[in-house]
Amino acid sequence: MSSLISGLTVLSSVGVDLHKRLLKSVGLTKSLLKSSDAPSIRPYEIFRPNPRWSRLESSDLKILGVPGFRNIAEHIVHFEIPSDILQTFHAHNSVQFPSSKEESMRMDEIFNAETLPLINTFVGNAVAFFPDDYKAVIAKSRLGEESTVYDKRYASYMGLHVDNWCEPKIDLMRRNKSAVRIFVNLGTEARDLNFINLTLAQILEIMQSHEKIEAFRSANNPIQLCHAFMENFPEYPVVQLEVYPGEGCVVPVCNIIHDGYTLYKSEPDVNLTLTSQGFCLRESFLASFISKDTLSSCCL
Ligand SMILES: [Fe+2]
Fold this sequence. Notes:
Helix content: 10-25%
Order of helices and strands: EEEEEHEHHHEEEEEEHHHEEEEEH
Bound molecules: fe (ii) ion
Radius of gyration: 19 Å
Strand content: 25-35%
Number of strands: 17
Distance between the termini: 30 Å
Largest sheet: 6 strands, mixed
Shape: globular
Structural class: alpha+beta
Number of helices: 8
Strand order of the largest sheet: 1-6-14-11-16-8
């Protein structure tokens, strides 16, 4: 399975040519992590995109760009914030890494006072309803890494994964797939988002004949299913979306395999992440770039 199959799609309200923003990898690589400090922690296999990337073919673009909106868990939705908000952030906050805890706290204070209210107001009014439980965090990732998820136990980045902070997560079919993350690139360089364009339900379907299928289905963490998929289909492409400064994405991180990627970057990867169990995209936002007859389930 070395070609994309229909699944999650990318919807962009930014008006850019997605062909110029999307790449695909020649499948996956696998490596084994070991904890040198604590040999009792068992070795852990991780998967990353094969760093041989190519432009998408027109057939790939058709698959990723199927028009229409189903529900928030089955799309990556690309948007932009007004440029003056990004300028405010750059004027008040350094995009460099803080040199001390005190500097980090001071930068967070400035961000919370100056930029965060502007982004919250814009995104809350123009893109999505903000539920009461939403959290906002500014994140900076180290450069030159094939992943942005760090695990202290292995002193290493973990690679492609599915988030598991959704509630409920009773089992695979009953987990809250609408728990999404919205991120906004506040850096000065494009941010790369890697993902596999298949939902957990599709991966479960593809893995029907696997000997552990019942265990995968009833597990409250999909990581074993996803690792088994990547082990069995190492040639399946990872898609990469380039997100420019001032642009953001709504990403169903609890329903797709994904990761950040700073391998080819020279400027700090700085982004605001908004997290909630139940963001709901505004119909007016979707209607601004998607045909209205496909919007009936927009809040599911
Ligand atoms: Fe994640």
